[in-house]
Amino acid sequence: MKIRVVGCDGGVAPGSETTCFQVHESLLIDAGSACTGLDIDAQRKVTDVLLTHAHLDHIRDLGFLADNLFGETEGVTIHALPEVNRILRKHFFNYAIWPDFTRIPSPQDPFYRLHDIEPEKQYVFGEVSVLPVRVDHTVPTVGFIVEDSTTAIVISGDTGPTERLWQICKSYKNIKGFLVELAFPHTHQEVANAAKHYTPATLKDELVKFERPDTPVALYHLKPRHKPRIEAEVEAMENPNLRFLKNGEVLTF
User: How many CB atoms lie within 10 A of CB 105?
Assistant: First the structure.
């Protein structure tokens, strides 16, 4: 399985790209940098977007993707929790923040089709299947277990310490990697607890739940202003299985 890291940052600064993973040419997980990280030709191939949750850094480029592709493609299906789709309709595609591409060019044939997904139900996209699992964030959020015929990888979504995702992972024999968020240094533990994000301190405890000490764990979603401190704290953990994702890299599992 190959996954392109379109964007892996937890905020916006020069050189940063917010969360977006390209599973194959037509499928994205989150869309924070779908336009700033993909050229127009690559954007034209997108037919489906899976959303972990509705925070801006994960949905931002949905607006610009519609701008770039409207009238050129048959549209895009957004797959998300019902709560997330309600937020998109009410607070984003509402003609105040952005044109309502869930009703343009017509309610019967819109550019964006919103599809409600259910946690712990399998969804198939070509050669991959995706299982959404609820995680513990401040808004309704899921992580994803992405699987092809030989390999599974886990994308945590935004979360703090959680349980169900790691419980379900135990039933998979073919997990080759974890992509796990890490937003704050442990010097900002109170903020991380309130925002329900990991720090290196809470991540260290969480890794025990994986029960896969030799499986690589790639870290993403670092807040740009905290990045040097987070990197230093992770290095101090002396765990050779931990590394940081980079924008634009292609992961092969």
Answer: 12
Cα–Cα distance, 18 to 208 (Å, whole number): 28
Question: Residue 54, Cβ neighbours under 10 Å: how many?
Answer: 20
| Residue with the two structure tokens 């959303």 | 51
Overall pTM > 0.90: yes
Instruction: Report the distance separating Cα 94 and Cα 41, nearest Å.
Output: 28
Could you read off the pLDDT of 57-72 as tens digits, one per residue?
999 999 999 999 999 9
Interatomic CA distance for residues 248 and 253, integer angstroms: 16
List helix spans (H) across 25-136.
40-44, 56-59, 61-69, 82-87
Side-by-side strand order, sheet with 2-7 = 112-116, 76-80, 48-50, 27-29, 20-24, 2-7, 250-252
Instruction: Give pLDDT tens digits for 131-155.
Output: 999 999 999 999 999 999 999 999 9
Report the SS3 class of residue 37.
coil
Which amino acid does the sequence have at 158?
A: D
Q: What is the bridge-based pairing of β-strands 20-24 and 2-7?
A: antiparallel
Phi/psi region, residue 160 (left: phi>0; alpha: psi -120 to 50; beta: rest), is beta
Question: Which residues, other chains included, contact 134 with Cβ-Cβ below 8 Å and sequence gap of 6+?
Answer: 119, 140, 141, 142, 164, 165
The DSSP-derived string for 218-236 is EEE-B-GGGHHHHHHHHHH
d(CA 93, CA 21): 22
Contact in structure between 23 and 58 (CB atoms under 8 Å): no
Distance of CA 74 to the CA centre of its chain: 24
For each of the domains in the chain, give its residue range(s) and CATH number, in order of start: 2-252 (3.60.15.10)
